Amino acid sequence: MLNDIGQKIKCIRKENNLNQVQFAKSIGISQGNLSEIELGNSNPSAETLISIRTQYNVNLNWLLTGVTAEDGTIYEDEFERRLIEVFRNLDDYDKNEIIEIMQLKKRLRSNL
């Protein structure tokens, strides 16, 4: 799973609307180093991982393994993790409503 770490870091950067220069500076590395990490050509150092965790409140277990849940659930990406996190805090009525919205969205997309 370490080969996915660059994609996860890129996702974190884009989620925060930062370019490579801005994100690299915020975590204390060069833009070139960040580029190599995002491309999967190198792995981040422990210091870089800790900086990402500190600056962007990222779960290191998820970043390294893709696992965040206690039950070992693996999420496809940061969007799925966020969706589940928010979804779990809704009441049953809102959960059903969200499911209906997602099903409608899927139907509309398949008709394009």
TrEMBL record:
Chain ranges of the HTH cro/C1-type domain: 9-63
Gene3D superfamilies noted in UniProt: lambda repressor-like DNA-binding domains
UniProt keyword terms in alphabetical order: DNA-binding
Gene Ontology molecular-function annotations: DNA binding
Highest taxon above the source species: Bacteria
Keyword Iron attributed: no
Entry-linked Pfam families: HTH_19
Record's protein name: Transcriptional regulator with XRE-family HTH domain
